[in-house]
Every structure is written in structure tokens, then in C-alpha cells.
Amino acid sequence: MATQQAPAIQVQGLEKSYKELQVLRGVDFDVARGSIFALLGSNGAGKTTVVKILSTLLKADAGTASVHGFDVATHPAEVRESISLTGQFAAVDELLSGRENLVLVARLRHLKDPGKIADDLLARFSLTDAGARKASTYSGGMRRRLDIAMSLIGDPPVIFLDEPTTGLDPQARIEVWQTVKGLARLGTTVLLTTQYLDEAEQLADRIAILHEGRILVNGTLAELKQLLPPAKVEYVEKQPTLEDVFLTLVSAEHRISLRTQKEPR
Amino acid sequence: MTKHFVGDTTVLLGRSLRHIARSPDTIITTAIMPIAMMLMFVYVFGGAIKTGSDSYVNYMLPGILLITVASGIAYTAFRLFMDMKGGIFERFQSMPIARSSVLWAHVLTSLVANSISLLVVVLVALLMGFRSGAGVAAWLAVAGILILFTLALTWIAVIPGLSAKTMEGASAFSYPLIFLPFLSSAFVPTDTMPGPVRFFAENQPVTSIVNAIRDLFTQQPVGTDIWIALGWCVGILIVAYAFAMNTYRRKIS
User: Fold this and answer.
1) Phi and psi at residue B173, to the nearest 5°
2) Does A150 sit within 8 Å of B91, measured CB to CB?
3) Measured between beta carbons, which residues in chain A are less than 8 angstroms from residue B75?
């Protein structure tokens, strides 16, 4: 099936319309194994639609897509075995505790010892103290961390993150970024969508810009930068950005200790 | 796909039962309205209603039980709607689990929650003087009819739960179902109703179900009512199930 060299995700000529509205007009891209691929686009560009098709939630009108060597249209069950989806809204069960959420997913993935898996992930995502609390009491960042922790259960080789940092405060964003980088270091393929340019710049090995249902460009950050005329030298006073100020002021007491190494199974 | 159906449904059933245990208000609200109606009908209106039965609470309990179920299933639509809205539904659908487990877990939860509510209502009725000489077999038959009725109404509730745009829309469908017993033999005999109303009352599902349960409670021969009642329940169940599954398939493809 999936050879080591084959891309983790292959998309060719993907088209999708909702009634008259043509959302995708022939999308092509490949994502290499173990890389982070960012799908950049404004609201309504079709990013979520691409993710939904790749995670078998939607059927494409035309074109083909395969994930981890399995065609999403003909082998959806195998695709689901290989992926994890973190949707736009943190999909946690608010009435359950953080730990119960993790145990639930571990059970649904038919894994042994769900309790231990849950405890390991709580520790890895600095949620141990909050583990027994209902998820409805969590902050936005904690909720997103729990959401991503739930997606990692069962070590799926491909992870989809649909706008993982939308609505998060700057610290929580950085926490999520560190988590994503850690995942890729361990060999997980990550496809993330974002409308934030800096997020794509920070995280992605390759960036594709999706606009009006088509991929406009697809390349590394350096390649994309070369598309514009060469940089000219200008002298500007270097001011700290508001983000720099904010983070310097508050991060002293919020040092993040995300342990990103893989837990032994 | 189906090899995990039982296991996955059990896990998801455990999840929604935990929801109920943590928000017991859903069971209390389900039981409170029928209990309030029962109090009002027995202690306010009951004295003036001639039913030919010596105890009005005995007469009206079957109808109250159906109202309990009709108000209880609104929560199934509500829970399903919250799952759809919160994104956890999509998480489940993108996981390698048996796909219909998500629905069945909600349906079974409805069965458990409504059974508890029904039990509470029957206990209150006993305190209010409800008595029945029915034997074990008759009680089991009553339970069977109520379970079938709950299943049928729950599958109806699945449809708005999956397709509603707002929370109000998800539960509004239950109002006519709650109202239906008033246009039946549940609270008053149908004899005094004017022609068209009487015709409707005597030929709608609630009347036959109420009459069957009442006959079982009072140890009367159930006659054809029970077959008509079962026919209605099974018929509604099949149609609602088909529509619900169709809606579900459109949602997940």
C-alpha cells in the first residue's frame, strides 16, 4: 500500500460545490510524510471544505484524494484509521472532565488501558491538575490543548488541524505552535489551515495559498518570498511589536512546559 | 465497520448517560410537567369530570405517561443538536467507529432517561392514590407498549435533532406531541366531543394506546385496542427510523 516515499496526502483536481456556489475549482497538492503543510486562505476560501473531504466528512464532486495511501472516496474506513481531525471548534465534551474526554476517545479507538493513555496525555499537555474538572470550566487555550490531545490518541500518522489557533490568546497560540512542531518532529504529518500569515510562516515546511477554490501558489516560505521582487534595503527604526510587549510582560509566570517527546507505550 | 458496533455504542451510551447523571434536571423537568398536570387534573378538574371510573387518577394515568414520554424525547433532539453544533459529532464521524453508533447511543439514552421519568411519575401517582390490580404480565405489557412508544417518538426526535438550525427548532416539534393526548380519550371519554373532534380523537394513535394501557391496568380484556396501539407504534417507529436514517446519511456523506 503506502510506500515510505509516497506523499502522506495526495490531492488532485478536487472540486466541490454547495448548490450553485462553487467552493473548490480543482485543487491539487501533495503533502510529504512527516512535514507540516499549511493551507493559507481568507475566510470562505474553501480550506475547511478541503479538510472535510480529506477526513471523509464530505464527498468531493470531482477529483481524487488519498490519505496515507488510501483513497478517501473508496476506502473511508481505512482513512479514518489513519487520521485525526481537530476541527475549527474545539470538539470536547463539556460535561465530561478532561480525563473522561481522553478515555472516551481511547475507548472509541479500541485501545488497551485507556486510563493510562489519558493520564500520559494529561501530563504531556500540562493538564494533570485540571484532569478531573469538567471541560466546560477550561480556558480557551486549555480546551484547545485537550482537543489536540484527544486527536493524538492512537498515534494517527496524519493529523488535520482546521484553524487551530483561531480565537486563542497569544500565549495559547504559542503553546499550540509548540505542540504542532513537536508532532512533526516525531514524524506525524500535519495539514493545518490558517488565515494567519505568521502562523504559516512559523510552522509550515510548505505553504499553499488557497484562493477562490484554487491553489494560487505552493512552496516553501523562501520560494514564496522569491515570487516578489528582491528585497530592497531600507532603514527603519525597530520598534517592539505589541505582541513582543505583551508576551514579555506576561510570559514570566506562564512558562510553558509542553513535553513534546513521545511517551513510551 | 460493524464489528465494533456493540462496543462503540456501549461506550457512547456511557457518555450520554453520564451527561444525564450530571444534569439530572433533564429528568426532573421531564417528570415535573406531567406530575403538575396530574395534580391539577386530579385535584382541580377531576371532581367535575365524569369518566365512569371510580378513581380519576386511575383513569388519567395512561395519558399522563404518554405526555411524560412526549416531553422527555425533546431532550434527545436537544442532546443530538448540541453534539452537531459543538463539533464532537464531526470528531466521532472522522474516527474509525461504527457510524450508526452515534445515533443508537442517543436513542438508548432516551430509553433509559424516559424509563426513569416514567417510574417517577408512577410513584407520584401511587402516592396520589393510583391503584392497579394488574399482575406481572399486565405490567410487563404496559412497559412493553411504553418502550415501543418511546422508541417511536425518539426516532422522530432524531430528525429535528440532526437537521435543526437553532436549539428552539430542535425541541419545538415536541409541543404538538405533548398536546395530542388532550385530543384523545386520555382525560375525558370521547363520547361528549362534537363530531369531527370525536372522529379525530377516536382514530388517532394516543386513544388506542391509552385505552390499551388503561385496560391492562384495570384488568379488562384489552380487545382490539392493543393491536391498533401496537400497529401505530410499530408503524410510526418504522417511518420515523427510515426518515431519521435518511437524514443521517445526508448529514454524514
Assistant:
1) -60, -20
2) yes
3) none
d(CA A20, CA B167): 28
Inter-chain residue contact A87 with B91, CB threshold 8 Å = yes
- A262 falls within a domain: no
Question: Using CA atoms, how far apart are residues B85 and B79, in angstroms rounded to an integer?
Answer: 10
Q: What is the pLDDT along chain B (253 residues), one digit of tens a residue?
A: 456 889 999 999 999 999 988 888 887 888 888 899 888 888 888 777 777 777 888 888 999 999 999 988 988 999 999 888 888 888 998 898 888 899 999 999 999 999 999 999 999 999 988 888 888 888 999 999 999 999 999 999 999 999 888 888 888 888 888 888 888 888 888 888 888 888 898 888 899 999 999 989 888 887 888 899 899 999 999 999 999 999 998 887 6
Q: Is residue A1 part of a domain?
A: no
In a domain, A265, yes or no: no
CATH of the domain at A142: 3.40.50.300
Chain A interface includes B215 (CB < 8 A): no
Using a CB–CB cutoff of 8 Å, tell me whether B91 touches chain A: yes
CB contact under 8 A, B96 and A77: yes
For A124, the domain range is 9-251
Phi, psi dihedral angles at B54 (to 5 degrees) = -75, -25
Report whether A1 contacts A69 (CB < 8 A).
yes
Residue A260: inside a domain:
no
**Grid cell at residue B29:** 423537568
- Nearest-CB residue to B95 (from A89, A94, A108): A108
Q: Across the interface, do A80 and B253 touch by the CB < 8 Å criterion?
A: no
Nearest to B11 among A93, A107, A134 (CB): A107
Show Cβ contacts of residue A241 under 8 Å, excluding neighbours closer than 6 positions.
Answer: none
Total number of domains constituting chain A: 1
Residues of A in contact with B11 (CB under 8 A): 104, 107-108
Q: How many domains does chain B have?
A: 1
Tell me which residue range forms the domain holding B98. 2-252
